[in-house]
Amino acid sequence: MDILVIIPAFNEARAIGQVIADIPSGLVQEVVVVNNASTDATEANARTAGATVLTEARRGYGWACLRGIAYARSRKPDVVVFLDGDYSDHPEEMTRLVQPIADGTADFVVGSRIRGTAEPGAMLPQAQMGNRLACTLMRWIWGAPYTDLGPFRAIRLADLLALNMQDKTFGWTIEMQIKAIQHGLRVQEVPVSYRRRVGVSKITGTISGTLKASAKILWTIARYALRAPRAKASAAT
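Above: the chain's sequence. Below: its structure in token form.
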């Protein structure tokens, strides 16, 4: 498979080189870092590490991912992998993430930190609580099999484009997971490892960030529950 990796990054100069270096050699055709209005050396360090660097001046996780998708549309890989730039995920586990797609048993794979091994303190209590609530609501409403909103995920490009992603900020990950169920994609979770990130989280590391993210996630769930059919999950666990 032709695999393209998208890494949205805001002020991740300390971590971005390590993230890129740990991506399995020979597995990926291109690594794309979307520099999301960073004020540090994120862009320079990503280029030094060998990544293609795109610029998205509108700050927001979703904005950065959308910029990466626009690039992927022009490059036409088979599979797109999303990976955070803070070194909390383990890029060397990417083979595990894309294997179900390569085997033809899944269209969309989420790396579950809940099913895997998380370093103590890697997931803050507020993140754990929000994660559990969101997954419970998705299970009640859509029968979705998710245990995590993990950012480490892989999806076929054709399916990703069909989802017509819209969210610009904190609702990005859950929008993708809801739409994957609504579009009847074969969804699978694989266990992944998780460690304490390099630096402080821009979301759960602050009270305001936590509140904004929680509100946006709950609003996104309500929005899609009210306006779209409640398709049943198609999943392999």
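The beta strands are 3-9, 30-35, 52-55, 79-82, 108-112, 153-156, 186-191, 234-236.
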